[in-house]
Design brief:
Elements (H helix, E strand, L loop, with lengths): L5 E7 L12 E6 L5 H8 L18 E6 L3 E5 L10 H17 L3 E9 L6 H12 L4 E6 L6 H15 L6 E4 L8 H12 L16
Parallel strand pairs: 2-4, 2-5, 5-6, 6-7
Antiparallel strand pairs: 1-3, 3-4
Length: 209
């Protein structure tokens, strides 16, 4: 997708604040500091529309970014940060669970994982939860540029094995620094939105789904 317009819309804390224009929504879930903001900025070709918090775990809302007036990227609060209180974690969990189970506009969840490390218990729990409730999911393994090319597939295997990754889900190796995986991820997102022509040629020689 060629992004010509991208804007921050709202940090929502209750469903009444969610946009009401019925555009498709792609949600991003992942641990604090996993690189969700950098991923968003790379997808929309902006340097700092999605800003990285200096304090991990600080984001406590669903941050909505509208792209080309066609869809929203919805950034979840990062999970797994030890200094966030149990009360805060419970509130985050309740807000995210309610959104995931009831939001009709949700078309896909991007589970963002650091390719350099095996998925955490929180990553595994989130993946299992999404499977249990049959939510569409794409695992995005970020920071691929930090790993030598010859070792990347080994790391991919570790991530998939640790998650017990299911073949009917999508998986993208991504680098916000290099743009690796950007076009592949957009193609997957568009296919879930129902906006991509199956015959449309994709960049990087990727087959249409």
């Amino acid at each position: 997708m060629k992004v010509t317009k991208a804007e921050f819309i709202i940090s929502a804390v209750v469903p009444a604040q969610y946009p009401e224009d019925a555009l498709p929504e792609i949600a991003l879930a992942g641990r604090s500091n996993v690189g969700k903001s950098s991923l968003i900025n790379r997808l929309i070709s902006r340097k700092n529309l999605a800003r990285t918090s200096a304090t991990p775990g600080k984001t406590q809302q669903l941050n909505y970014y509208k792209v080309n007036d066609e869809l929203y990227l919805v950034d979840f609060p990062g999970y797994g940060y030890a200094k966030v209180s149990k009360t805060q974690r419970a509130a985050f969990g309740e807000m995210i669970e309610k959104y995931l189970l009831s939001r009709d506009e949700l078309k896909l969840v991007l589970l963002v994982i650091d390719l350099r490390h095996p998925p955490s218990k929180d990553d595994i729990s989130m993946y299992e939860w999404l499977q249990y409730y049959n939510r569409p999911v794409c695992v995005v393994a970020t920071k691929a540029d930090k790993i030598p090319k010859t070792r990347r597939h080994k790391h991919v295997k570790i991530v998939k094995d640790t998650l017990n990754f299911q073949p009917h889900h999508s998986f993208v190796m991504f680098s916000s620094e290099l743009g690796l995986g950007k076009d592949e991820l957009w193609a997957i997102m568009q296919s879930h939105m129902g906006t991509m022509d199956p015959e449309e040629p994709l960049e990087e020689g990727l087959p249409a789904e």
